[in-house]
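Q: Can someone sanity-check these two? First one:
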Amino acid sequence: MDRVKEGGRTDYISYVAEEGHSPELTYIYINNQATLYNAYISFDGFSINPPGGQKFAVSFRGSKYGKFSNLTVTKDNADPTVAGVQGNAYGFYIRDASTDVLINNSTISPASEYTGRVDGFYHGIYITSDCSDFTITNNEIKQTSTFGIFAPSKNAIISNNNIHFYSGNAGIFLGGGSGILVENNQIHDSLAYRPTLSETPANTT
């Protein structure tokens, strides 16, 4: 992650929670819409709780070099989930040709305990096809209503993640991606359908 590109700097601006504390943020938005920007930014140890109507918890757009570690990312349970329209659609939203991104040892889930339905984000981690050189490791992603990890991108490592109680579309989706190493992930307890309030879900492994 700490490579020099285009003669740029390699030192990160790091936001690290004090030991024993987990400061709460509503969302993180690293945004560049012109040319790729050397962000060199790191967040470690925060809780991210987007309000209702906020499309994402963490967005990294048109940028290079981002590290996100030990985060607790939770969806507003009262918020509707409609991708691209309203609601908390994305836990992590990596887009617009971003590169060199690390997402490590984080939890992406709904705000409350498992209720028997898919109450989490629409996508846990969503990476657009023009992005590359990312690492997703040691994360727990649960109760997404579409994909745990959506990453039809290039040159990546996806390893040691625990993805469970998702809707059944796919725990990890890579359609069209290339150069991606996927290993040692646990994908289990897919919800084959959405039960009514009186039903108990059929968990499949």
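And here is the second, same format, sequence then tokens:
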Amino acid sequence: MSLFSADNKLIQFIDKYVDFMQLQLMTLICCLPLLTVGPAYTAKYYTSMKLARGEAPNVMKSFLKSFKENFRQGVVLELAAVPAVLIIAVDWYLIGSTHLGTLTYVLLSVMIAVTFVVSTVYAFAFPLLARYNAGTGMILKSALTVGMGKLWVSVLFLLFTVVLVAACIEWIVYGVFVWLIGGAALCWIRSLLLVKVMDDIEKKES
């Protein structure tokens, strides 16, 4: 078998990795207006889960198709997250800048739990929107149910995010390349896990 044959496992791996890096770049570009973060992430997971399933979509066409179809609901999901993120950010600031003795540790524990729950909901909300047709309320409710039901996956997703952000900060000079290469790898792993989770859900419903 030729090194550059399409049947070569290494070439297939590299080809798919390039697809995930292209997906990372397209997501970044479509997130720049900020208002379009929701549709961009929905489109990202729509395409990444196709790649993880072994399908061979045209990355750009697949991304733009989902971006257009889920634009309105993606924006609504994103806007629903804004108040929660702002409240959490303010609460973290207040906890970090005040000293209330033992109460500080109690509040810290509460904030860790709340932050985890919110991050879990949005770790699953956009992939669920990419996969299913449902109202915004149902998407958020389902994201919470799935996230808590698959707690180990939720923890892994949070760790992936922390590791990627930490790596970008540690090698800040090369942050863009770390985000592109590392983010593509984590997106691939995350998508494989999402496919497994959703396949399990669909098997139980059938």
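A (reply): Looked at the second one. The radius of gyration is 19 Å. The chain has a mean pLDDT of 90.
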